[in-house]
């Protein structure tokens, strides 16, 4: 009995990987074995960095809030603790946006907790 090979599925799998590796440099874009490794590594980095991005943004927001709070004579930790004591529920993303783009509103928040 002749050997049965599903070449349609194999080709489809290879084309999918080579399509994902479009734009890579050198043999990473057109040689199947090299492209497969490059795409797998890229997908691993993408998965990891979707989580790291959240960390980086939170860090950026904290830095911005701290800088704005210090202009008003507070530190970041003092500001956050006073917000919690006064039951003002505002997240860091919004607080950082106010600090950067609307300093008057940020000053009002600080005035309300002092």
Walk me through what this model shows:
- α2 crosses α4 (92-101).
- The chain has a single domain (9-113), classed as c-terminal domain of poly(a) binding protein (Orthogonal Bundle).
- The protein has helices at residues 7-20, 32-71, 76-85, 92-101, 103-113.
- The chain is mainly α and 114 residues long.
- The protein has 5 helices and no strands.
Strand content: under 5%
What is the CATH top level name?
Mainly Alpha
Structural class: mainly alpha
List SSEs in N-to-C order: HHHHH
CATH-assigned homologous superfamily = Ribosomal protein L20, C-terminal domain
Proper CATH architecture: Orthogonal Bundle
What tags apply to this protein structure?
mainly alpha, 75% helix, c-terminal domain of poly(a) binding protein, 114 residues
Q: Helices, strands, pairings?
A:
Elements: H1 7-20, H2 32-71, H3 76-85, H4 92-101, H5 103-113
Helix pairs in contact: 1-2, 2-4, 4-5
In short:
With 114 residues, the chain is mainly α.
